[in-house]
Amino acid sequence: MLMQTHEARLNALREELKRRELDGFVIPISDEHMSEYVGGYAQRLAWLTGFGGSAGSAVVLKHKAAMFVDGRYTIQVRDQVDSALYDYCQVPKDDMGKWIAANADKNPRIGYDAWLHTKAWADRVSAALAKVGGELVAVDTNPVDAVWEDQPEPSAAMAMVHDDAFAGQSSAEKRAMVADWLKSEGLDAAVIGALDSVAWLLNIRGADVDRTPVALSFVIANSDGTADLFIAPEKVSPELAQHLGNAVTVRPRDEFESALAAMKGRKVAVDPNSGVAAIFKALEDAGAQAVAERDPALLPKAIKNPVEQQGHRDAQARDGAAVSRFLHWLSIEAPKGGETELSAAAKLHAFREETGKLKELSFDTISAAGPHAAIPHYRVDEDSNLPIASGSVYLVDSGGQYLDGTTDITRTVWIGPGDPPAEVKDRFTRVLKGHIAIARAIFPENTAGSQLDAFARQFLWQAGVDYAHGTGHGVGSFLMVHEGPQRIAKSGGGQAGTDEPLQAGMFLSNEPGYYKAGEYGIRIENLVLVEPRQIDGAEGEYLGFETLTFVPIDRSMVDVSLLTPEEKTWWNDYHAHVRDILLPQLEGDVRAWVEEGCKPL
Can you identify the CATH homologous superfamily of domain 303-596? Predict the structure, then answer.
């Protein structure tokens, strides 16, 4: 009889911890690669607690437990996780180590899985526990796995070749670049643990993680340009083996730890953000020197080459037509009643499928009606599914994975009949003004995303409101929809990437928002490309953004009186581009709907 309730699962875990003589255990949303999105086998936090977000952790002690999430999930965690079982803690305000120290028994032994946490996290929590005579203990096997009776197996999907025609650069060229970096730093090898970095470096893709085309694997890249790929042998086809060539040695994934143990005397780079604590420990135990260095694939992967840039434009054009077909359909069907968050998400998926080029969605569609739109990372299911009501706000954040690009777009629309209330139009227009401010930004090289973030928030701040997520994240090329190192967000607070200088060739989202808990939410998101800007008389190099996403923005939500002449010009120019890109792909009523939505203000 499988455990059906989260209380039963929590009790079973506590019994397992008691058997192992542990006073507590930390359960993150993570896998051995520190991925944001993880395979079903690694969804330990969701199984234990019911939390469906993409970032968070739980701490389970003998008599108390807590959920730690950031501001994106403040509402969601309360909807999904039982307050009778877990306290709610918000990071970065609430520190996990301090919470454990304050709530655990005297001299506690707190377990953690060293394959699911960074070394920095382990060092920080260890220091907090040491102050109260406690100890952080690396477990041999994960105790959640011991009580999760129907835990899925890791995916057995085949890995695939990602053709150079889409990658724009061969794997040999990329490995040579890494090798040159290793030699310049006096290093012998680099451990590549991030799944998207492995995929980028070797020009391979996979289907092991929902919505993310990666294969479960590790790479050790060597200073002579060779590499060892650790992957389940059954994932490797003859075609893939031929693609990898003689310079890449394919080894079983379960040999990775023993390969680390054989690196005595070598200086090995490990990224402290994507390399888990267990990798550092294995290298140190082997007598190797583990050097904390940023993943050498991270920045080159983020700076897209011309082939990737053009591929993304092509992907956005077809994706924009699919989203526009959906919004036209929604404008007709939703006011009639009978449509729900789930039916709308399914319809949007169908329109993307009709392109004939969709490989997968890039994340679970956020199809959010009314009060659910106030949950930034809401994910609809059968239990939460709301009807899309007339006279309400509907927010849809979605994207597709295509061989030539990864898309991500949010549109917020008013479901008629009638006009949106004045407050809704005011908030929508302030979000729009922030979106336009980012789109029009011009800035000197070496400007970090954190320096631009206030551009998007200023108009909301003037009304005494704000939003609790970043303004923009990096985006991959047929890879992860959230890609580092660049982002646009407030600095500090543990926000990785906010101090990363923006460079020409980087993709980012532009997505300010506003959320009124229990009532409605607004977000407008396009993807942009950082590009050089030529300015007469400029002293130094300057950059700006090319907008890549072209879908009409709901003009019924706009209070035109709040827009400046420059903002109206941006709106009109943007929608002229929408018309140019979409109309050749559309016909009939959809074409007429786009033409109407693109009329100048």
Answer: Creatinase/methionine aminopeptidase superfamily (3.90.230.10)
